Amino acid sequence: MPNGDINWNCPCLGGMATGPCGYQFRSAFSCFHYSQTEPKGSDCYEEFQQMQECMSKYPTLYGLDKDDEKEDEFAGDEFAELERQVEESDKHDKDSGSSSKEPSS
Length: 105
Known about the structure:
The protein is mostly helical.
């Protein structure tokens, strides 16, 4: 959002913020988004771990393969890409809204 908050309604999040692991996802993504450490999000290990534990309970929903070792990896790169998509979507929405002559509701 323009004030730096996360737009949880961004379609680029693909419903992750509202699924059965939505709380864990929002916690991990928030930690990553506001992280000041280098590499970004490296202080969010516990939040990522909790999210991954929850997602492992729903492998079909989250597209996880039981043999996939990626679950144990730090998800910082994926979160960086999601964050970039959220920012681009918000910028596009803002630009679209400001150029439209119709009032937004």
